[in-house]
Write a structure and sequence with these properties.
By secondary structure, the protein is α/β, with parallel strands linked by helices. The protein is about 30% helix and about 30% strand. It folds into two domains: about 80 residues, ACT domain (Alpha-Beta Plaits); about 200 residues, 3-Layer(aba) Sandwich (Rossmann fold).
Length: about 280
């Protein structure tokens, strides 16, 4: 059984020791461990991925709760094996419906072996879409259009979410949320080809340098690092010379982006790929 443990909290001496001692005492094999000290913010962050016998899950879960209480760390224990047959997805949305609609439709059609647990939006644009598919919609928007990140975290825990999908979600997740769901649990759809077109307007940027091939990138989100090394899947389309930018954007948003997100998510939940030390590796041959 593969288990991912994340810990985040105020920096102090010896925070990692009880976690490592616990899992090694139980005979776990440590496959990956990362620790970060954010000196300016006095924050400690840790990710530990282990392999252990299935029977030890209750003990590890219980012990991590005890360690969290004693150290003041926010500790999350998760395994892709718990709901491997149908992992629970949260779709985070803002305005555009095509990508979340494609994911919801793929689930309904059986193309994605998953369950849509909740649709979360900092705008209400996708609320009716969620209702059409019978999925709860949770609004986290503030009056200025920003998002209540703490409320998002509470909802992810409440709905027991396995994977967080940023389905054209137009807000940047804070580092602490990224750490709490680290280890390949946050998947983003970027509407351009990484690493070449990283900005907010990748269609415009590619058009400006006279590109005829445009694309989208599905990638894992990791704290503090550029997304270029965490690419899950990319899809492209080619246009004829002279095609107007408006037509390129329409084709990208309505056809290419939805396909890219669905295929990227499928590869993750089918465990064809996973994130390991900030690199995407193949897990099936």
């Amino acid at each position: 059984m593969e288990i991912t443990i994340t810990a985040l909290g105020p920096d102090n001496v010896g925070l990692a020791d009880p976690i490592i001692h616990c899992v090694t005492t139980l005979g776990a094999n440590i496959a990956e461990i990362q620790m970060y000290d954010h000196d300016e913010a006095a924050i400690f962050a840790m990710l530990c991925r282990i392999h252990v016998d299935d029977s030890l899950w209750p003990a590890i879960d219980r012990n991590m709760k005890d360690i969290a209480q004693k150290t003041g760390l926010s500790i999350r224990v998760w395994s892709p094996s718990l709901r491997a047959a149908k992992p629970r997805l949260a779709l985070c949305t803002t305005f555009l419906e095509a990508v979340p609609r494609a994911v919801l439709q793929a689930i309904e059609d059986g193309q994605l072996r998953a369950q849509a647990a909740v649709v979360i939006g900092n705008r209400r644009k996708c609320e009716s879409l969620a209702q059409r598919f019978g999925v709860p919609f949770e609004f986290i928007g503030k009056p200025d259009g920003s998002a209540d990140d703490q409320r998002m975290l509470e909802l992810l825990d409440q709905y027991q979410v396995d994977y967080v999908l940023l389905a054209r979600y137009m807000r940047i997740l804070p580092p602490d949320l990224c750490w709490k769901y680290a280890g390949g649990r946050i998947i983003n759809l970027h509407h351009g080809l990484l690493p070449s077109f990283k900005g907010l307007r990748p269609y415009h940027d590619a058009y400006a340098v006279r590109m005829l091939t445009f694309g989208a990138t599905c990638h894992f989100i990791v704290p503090e690092l550029d997304a270029g090394n965490q690419i899950i899947y990319q899809s492209t389309f080619t246009v004829s010379s002279g095609t107007k930018l408006e037509e390129i954007i329409r084709k990208g948003q309505e056809q290419n982006e939805p396909h890219c997100m669905v295929e990227g998510v499928r590869r993750v939940i089918d465990r064809e790929v996973q994130l390991h030390f900030h690199r995407v590796i193949a897990t099936k041959h």
